[in-house]
Design brief:
Shape of chain A: globular
Structural class of chain A: mainly alpha
Distance between the termini of chain A: 47 Å
Pfam family, one (chain A): BPD_transp_1
Strand order of the largest sheet of chain B: 2-1-3-10-4
Radius of gyration of chain A: 20 Å
Number of strands of chain B: 10
GO molecular function (chain A): molybdate ion transmembrane transporter activity
CATH superfamily of chain A: MetI-like
Function (chain A): Part of the binding-protein-dependent transport system for molybdenum; probably responsible for the translocation of the substrate across the membrane.
Helix content of chain B: 25-40%
Largest interface: A-B, 20 and 21 residues
Order of helices and strands of chain B: HEHEHEHEEEHEHEHEEHH
Largest sheet of chain A: none
CATH architecture of chain A: Orthogonal Bundle
Largest sheet of chain B: 5 strands, mixed
Oligomer: heterodimer
Membrane topology (chain A): Multi-pass membrane protein
Structural class of chain B: alpha/beta
CATH class of chain A: Mainly Alpha
Distance between the termini of chain B: 73 Å
Number of helices of chain B: 9
InterPro entries (chain A): MetI-like, MetI-like_sf, ModB_ABC
Order of helices and strands of chain A: HHHHHHHHHHH
């Protein structure tokens, strides 16, 4: 059981880190760009919100499998396709939780507006410097929301993992699968333990987020 | 002004229709919902087809792992019959008063080790090494009897299998893993692969694992459902047993 909990935490942490790297530039581009493709990319990013996880799982099974270019590359490099591996789960989770990172970030970036950027530019700040020293600190709230939401959402992932995970202890047997297994094999005491733990954890996280948001709003008003 | 009698009229029509439908239900034969273990799905479909030739009725099949179906039934899922992949779960339903006190062994499953591309698999356990079978799929041994049997078979191998063991949620997903090429070989039910044009398999001898007796029970909800009872009896008929044998099971 601790295995499953640790694995889920590891998966959520890694996924969140990858999403930060991908999500920040993507959200910035979506907030600032005037490109024709903007709406299309934006729609694509939001797709995992409305797609059934099994649809994602199905396509991942095919696109990471042994007959796909990705699978063949991975077979050459690692000796096996990416399905049923921890790496495969990370890829799946990144796709699955992408909107949870990008949306809050994009909203914050948009709410900053151009004025602070112009002011920074007149003070001879380079764009990158402006982004790191002005934009990111001003987007604290959105960043935090994005990080927490991606993390929690990944913790709860089930459909995708069921289809591409293969229930390997220590590799792909995450929390949600462990609960499912305990329920099916009638070990309800263990299922209760994890499930209740998740309920409590989720509640605390959401409560903390609300409190932090209120605090940061007061901070901005000052 | 004249809307009211109109709606009233429509209401009357619908009332009449529902009356007619409820009257015609027993004439058309009752609906029967059967919960079938994943390994027996295609065979069950054939059985229903054979049964339909002599009876008019409406039989709906739901399939999944025996563990999942068992839990659904325990929690009041509206099934009339349960064709499990084991005998433990039907027995428990009888003990808990959810099923009628009559357990029928309708088939005995045969385990097979199947590979899509590796002919060596026909040599059996000796062929199971990391070089040829990097990843091997079995059904979840906790919930699927075929998975538990696969674990027994693997335990009898000296030295132990050294590759990665992947678990399918049930025997159907386990087969899908191997058929899609995501794993090199899988322990599946003989019935799943017997008629396949491609692939190689080794039929696991009975002696090295607990026999896979599959039990069926009638659920309390179906006590008065004639069609459900008729289908349950049909399971042990000569016709049905022949279909079951041809599908790759043993019968008594």
């Amino acid at each position: 059981m601790t295995d499953a909990i640790l694995l889920s935490l590891k998966l959520a942490t890694l996924t969140t880190c990858v999403l930060l790297v991908i999500g920040i530039p993507l959200a910035w581009w979506l907030a600032r760009s005037k490109s024709l493709f903007k709406d299309m990319i934006s729609a694509l990013v939001s797709m995992p919100l409305v797609l059934p996880p099994t649809v994602l799982g199905f396509y991942l099974l095919i696109s990471l499998g042994p007959d796909s270019p990705l699978g063949q590359l991975s077979t050459t490099l690692l000796g096996s396709p990416l399905t049923f591996t921890f790496t495969g789960l990370v890829i799946g989770s990144v796709v699955f939780s992408l909107p949870f990172m990008v949306q809050p970030l994009r909203n914050t970036f948009e709410s900053i507006g151009v004025r602070p950027l112009e002011v920074a530019a007149t003070l001879r700040s380079s764009p990158l410097n402006t982004f790191i020293r002005v934009v990111l600190p001003m987007s604290r709230g959105g960043l935090l929301t994005g990080i927490v939401m991606s993390f929690v959402h990944t913790l709860g992932e089930f459909g995708v993992v069921l289809m591409i995970g293969g229930n390997i202890p220590g590799e792909t047997k995450v929390l949600s699968i462990a609960i499912y297994d305990y329920v099916e094999s009638l070990e309800w005491d263990k299922a209760h333990l994890i499930a209740a733990g998740m309920v409590a954890f989720s509640f605390i996280i959401i409560l903390l987020l609300t409190l932090l948001e209120r605090k940061s709003r007061r901070g901005l008003q000052r | 002004m004249n809307r009211k009698p109109y709606t009233f009229g429509r209401f009357r029509v619908s009332l009449l229709l529902s009356l007619l439908l409820s009257l015609s239900a027993p004439i058309r034969g009752e609906t029967v919902n059967i919960a079938v273990a994943a390994n027996f799905l295609s065979t069950a479909q054939q059985l229903v087809q054979a049964f339909s030739q002599s009876n008019s009725h409406n039989i709906l099949i739901s399939s999944g792992s025996s563990g999942k179906l068992f839990i659904q039934i325990k929690h009041g899922a509206p099934f009339h019959l349960f064709l499990s992949a084991d005998t433990d779960r039907p027995k428990r339903l009888i003990e808990e008063g959810i099923a009628l006190d009559d357990l029928k062994i309708y088939a005995t499953g045969q385990l097979a080790l199947w590979s899509k591309h590796y002919p060596g698999i026909e040599q059996g356990l000796e062929a199971l090494d990391k070089n040829h079978v990097t990843r091997l799929a079995i059904a979840n041994p906790k919930t699927a009897p075929y998975g538990a049997a696969a674990i027994e078979v693997l335990a009898s191998r000296e030295p132990a299998y050294d590759g990665v063991i992947v678990q399918g949620d049930n025997i159907a997903q386990t087969y899908q893993f191997a058929a899609s090429g995501n794993v090199d070989a899988a322990f599946v039910a003989l019935s799943q692969i017997k008629k396949l044009p491609q692939g190689y398999y080794w039929q696991v001898p009975h002696e090295i694992h607990t026999p896979l007796h599959q039990g069926a029970v009638i659920l309390k909800a179906a006590q008065d459902n004639l069609t459900a009872n008729a289908f349950y009896d049909f399971l042990s008929s000569h016709t049905a047993q022949q279909i079951i044998r041809q599908s790759g099971y043993l019968t008594f």
